[in-house]
Amino acid sequence: MSAKDIIHIRAPEYDATTGLDNLISLAEMQTGNFGDEVLGTVTVNDTAVSITVRDMAIALRTLHTIVRQEIRVGIKHGGTLGNIGEGALNVALTFSDLDKKQFPDLCTTIWGVELIQLIRANFSGGVTRMFHAL
Fold first, then answer.
1. Closest CA to 79 of 98, 66, 61
2. Domain boundaries defined on the chain
């Protein structure tokens, strides 16, 4: 499933975004070495379609960029971070100080924070092993 299809499923309100294909291309260039591992499958028109980690990362980065553009031009949108409330339910979105330091821009939107979680789930830091000589 392409990043554009994922955007259509996750945030159909952005289907008509001006320059969406260019934003997806930019996000693709900015997206690192995610492999083609399958995150899962969805059924579209009675056909199982796979979603890869890379396509999900590209879609999330594109959605993050769209919301950041909206912030710059003053459009109010639920994609910015803060508190989300509906009725008696109120959820505060938080992230670690390490995330703020490593991903300061991504920490500004819900899509960016989801991308951070995807990055954390798919990359592990280097491992150093020290062997004690007898």
1. 66
2. 3-122
